[in-house]
Design a protein that fits this description.
The structure is a homodimer.
Chain A (H helix, E strand, L loop, with lengths): L1 H13 L4 E2 L1 H4 L18 E2 L4 H14 L3 E4 L16 E4 L6 E5 L4 E5 L4 H10 L2 E2 L12 H6 L7 H4 L6 E7 L5 E4 L12 H5 L8 E8 L1 E2 L3 E9 L2 H14 L4 E8 H10 L13 E9 L2 H17 L5 E4 L3 H11 L5 H4 L4 E6 L2 H18 L4 E7 L4 E7 L5 H17 L18 H4 L2 H14 L12
Parallel strand pairs in A: 2-4, 3-4
Antiparallel strand pairs in A: 1-2, 5-6, 6-10, 7-11, 8-9, 8-10, 12-14, 12-15, 13-14, 13-17, 16-18, 17-18
Helix pairs in contact in A: 1-3, 13-14
Chain lengths: ~450, ~450
């Protein structure tokens, strides 16, 4: 068997410490958090440095052996799952911080380093690494890069691609590309870095990266606002960006259906305002001057109340009060407790279209399932909403129908079927809702150019 | 002749209004600002919309006819010059603003629109378009995209690639890719947009773009600082970014040699400080709250003086004083008056290495040419410096030797031979100083995948 020969050659070249067989890696987790089916890899390769990744890929390439790259396995679209017949290359041993350069404000890390380790090392060095998501303790920087991770602070700091100056990666052939550049400006030929970021392991294996560090914010102001209409929500966003800019670090909007459902079901949550409103916004701004920043934030909020943009607002007077506001926004982490069998979507639109998109989803879902629970919330500053749906006795057929409703709305309003989670296997049949045939054909041509035998993460994205 | 047939077919399909022959376009300028040699195109094609670009490229593709894309022809590396045998496609008729969406903060434009038109339309709509460079009146958005233009505000707002949400382009085959997306987050397959940005017309012709608009800053503070050492300069940068962040909108450093040369030769300039210093920094910060912003800026400057980071400083008390500071930084526009025959470089390094790089260039140039004028200045917040050199009686041989000095330093310190100007033909023989053989091979593979017959801007970049 070709696959057995490949595994044998890998083990010969890299040793049994690096190349582990199923009987050796035992009950190691080899599937992501998506819940999608995933097989057991023929072997798990755990290289200790870039040279070992290159050696492994060179051998796989010679044997035509397909490869799945695995980081923290926290993805939500099946992107790191084995389809059948692949070996897995895990970056879990390449988890070191190589260097912090305080003058250049950079941190050089190996791709297997967990996000939280990077965040903490940045803080210890007097800096801030802004990317943040719920999986921070488990997800790896390489996975964050492969999926162009987003999260809560995108409105101010951008996506993962905006946090990277240099990228080193290994092609299917075993050739190393990119490097540990620290230049903010570099217009010397094609930007391979941005091509690899978000390519979900299908073009190369990212091995090391130079991350950009930011100044640590020293002042944070947080408010919970109730608003009368979607128009008021977008007005608040644009005024906040104009007045507090570029301090706005979170602008999380929650539709009433979301708010009512989480408050009714999670008794640890407290309503921040006395009355009900059609929309709620968690507004956060960061700065570097505690007194001036707090004054400006409060003044702004007062003006928005006076102008009727905001109907009512609560200003967090302590960190714990701010955390209590965030707990309402972070309630999706608790969904399993009250809607274990839900369908969840991660879609984006132009900011102007988010309100229309949310309304169309809500109306169409309720028409079909009058008892549906429809919860909509998201990062409005980025045009990104999450839609969570539960219908009584939901089966596979219902789930497929809900997919169609959500993705039809996304296509009709020129949105994206994946704002931040990626495509993997979960959304690949809907890729053409967001990307044209010519785009997909171009992606395939690029894939063939860099991975001519289709060995890297086969069957993913397209 | 195949070329004559191609021109004939183009003229048949698109008409003589769109496809103009040399006797018709007459003394139209067809070379860029680089001063590098450029030929006369076989025809200038001036499409009125994306469909006409697609039609033209489809015909060129069928006839194997090479194409050079031309925008405002303000490039500095020969990227838009005809090498011989190409037709030119000029986007000068596609110069309309398609739409401004104030809720989504976007502007959709055709690629031939001049940068200044975009800036003014943004301002008129109550927004700000931050990309700015000297060529603003002539350069086009398409050219800004093809070269990933930089300029003075990169430290705060990023390069051209950071100003774009959607991109529509036409491949050599005539197929249209991308689109007018307004999503800030979109992780649905490979990011073709970032691949095309900075590819200097070798992969596709950019036809339309959705630009991101920013809130208009309403407060600006500007200071001219004298500093004792390069270490003090980097300290001022990191403290400014921590304390004023993210308001720092310019951090322009000038070495003494630059300052002395421009003040000695341009009698319109006035020294902002009484005494001489080894380094000068023009520091600018923008905000949205005039009173609080001015107070914070002055307070910060006082602290830097007290700490000895800054030896002396002048705070601009009026717009005209700020402009007088900027005139010293913008003196390169006047070089022609006192060093008409100079060599100029646009290189970048990690911020920590800029000081060392500047010193090596200066020392090595003076060793070889004791009477050399060496002027170094740049955008330190981006690691980008410009080096301008004049040696007595400079000939081609001297120029080549100076190239070697500067690019050797760049290679040795892992810098980039092109921070913002691009590669074109001017720097392509030095591309391997910044990019590895594997990188260049990958670029060629991608080029072949998207433009298999090598028809788009042949001979450029690599």
């Amino acid at each position: 068997m070709a696959a057995q020969e490949a595994v044998h050659a890998l083990r010969e070249a890299l040793g049994s410490q690096v190349v582990q067989l199923p009987e050796e890696f035992g009950d190691r987790r080899v599937v992501d958090w998506s819940g999608l089916p995933g097989g057991v890899p023929l072997a798990v390769i755990r290289p200790r440095d870039t040279a070992e990744v290159a050696k492994a890929l060179h051998i796989c390439s010679e044997h035509g052996q397909p490869v799945v790259t695995q980081g923290g396995l926290t993805g939500l679209v099946g992107g790191a799952n084995v389809q059948g017949g692949e070996v897995a290359i895990s970056l879990d041993r390449m988890n070191k911080i190589v260097e912090i350069d305080p003058v250049s404000s950079t941190m050089t890390v190996e791709a297997g380093t967990p996000l939280q380790v990077v965040q903490e090392a940045a803080t210890a060095a007097g800096f801030y690494f802004p990317l943040d998501l719920g999986a921070r303790g488990s997800c790896s920087i390489g996975g964050n890069l492969a999926t162009n991770a987003g999260g809560n602070r995108v409105i101010k700091y951008g996506m993962m691609r905006d946090q990277v100056l240099g990228l080193e990666a290994v092609l299917a052939s075993g050739k190393v590309i990119g490097g540990l550049n620290k230049m903010i400006k570099d217009n010397s030929g094609y930007d391979l870095r941005h091509l690899l970021i978000g390519s979900e392991g299908t073009l190369a294996i990212i091995t090391r990266a130079v991350l950009r560090l930011r100044p640590k914010p020293t002042a944070t102001a947080t408010a919970w606002c109730g608003l009368p209409s979607y128009e008021a929500v977008t007005t608040l966003l644009s005024r906040a960006q104009a007045r507090l800019a570029p301090g706005v670090s979170a602008f999380e909007v929650m539709w009433k259906g979301y708010y009512d459902a989480v408050l009714a079901n999670l008794d640890t949550l407290r309503a921040p305002l006395d009355e009900a409103h059609p929309f709620y916004v968690l507004l956060e701004s960061v700065g570097t001057d505690p007194v001036r920043h707090a004054d400006a934030f409060e003044e702004f909020l007062g003006e928005m109340l006076e102008a009727g943009v905001v109907s009512d607002a609560a200003l967090a007077s302590s960190d714990s009060q701010a955390l209590a506001f965030w707990a309402i926004r972070d309630a999706p982490g608790e969904y399993q407790r009250f809607i274990p069998n839900h369908a969840a979507y991660d879609v984006s639109f132009s900011i102007a279209q988010v309100g229309e998109a949310a309304q169309r989803c809500d109306v169409r879902l309720r028409e079909r399932w009058p008892d549906a629970i429809v919860m909509i919330y998201g990062h409005l500053g980025d045009g990104n909403i999450h839609v969570v749906v539960d219908v009584p006795g939901m089966g596979k057929h219902d789930h497929d129908e809900i997919d169609d409703v959500i993705y039809d709305v996304t296509r009709d309003l020129q949105g994206s079927i994946s704002a931040e989670h990626g495509i993997g296997t979960k959304k690949k049949h809907f890729l053409h809702f967001t990307r044209s045939d010519n785009d997909i054909e171009s992606m395939r041509a690029i894939k063939s150019a860099l991975d001519p035998h289709g060995l890297l993460n086969p069957g993913k994205v397209f």
